[in-house]
Amino acid sequence: MTFPFSGAAVKRMLVTGVVLPFGLLVAAGQAQADSQWGSGKNLYDKVCGHCHKPEVGVGPVLEGRGLPEAYIKAIVRNGFRAMPAFPASYVDDESLTQVAEYLSSLPAPAAQP
């Protein structure tokens, strides 16, 4: 009895049909894991801004203050006074880096009389 495919052909089909798609899934998952919020602006708008936007007036304004990334990470991870701590499972480190960069890129809000 002869088989229509040689060993090399079966290996190529296996790599193409199973290994390659699996590799693409892993790569897509890693890209998503790099920043779970997508951008610093998105994280700020959906989480931080509920208290820290100038028009809200709950927490201190963060925009345009040039806060160091390490400071933002320490406060977010540990909390401070009325601000709760946010674990890495909710806000990953890459997203905190992005939000620090985003906040540093914003101008300081105009002083109010």
UniProtKB/TrEMBL annotation:
Molecular-function GO terms, alphabetical: electron transfer activity; heme binding; metal ion binding; oxidoreductase activity
According to its UniProt record, the EC number is 1.17.99.1
Is NADP set as a keyword in this record?
A: no
Q: Name one Pfam family in it.
A: Cytochrome_CBB3
Keywords from the named record:
Heme, Iron, Metal-binding, Oxidoreductase, Plasmid, Signal
**Enzyme class per UniProt:** oxidoreductase
Q: Which domain of life is it from?
A: Bacteria
What PROSITE patterns does the record tag this protein with? CYTC
Asked if the record carries the keyword Signal, the reply is yes
Q: Where is the signal peptide?
A: 1-33
Instruction: Report domain Cytochrome c positions.
Output: 35-107
Q: What is this protein called?
A: p-cresol methylhydroxylase cytochrome subunit
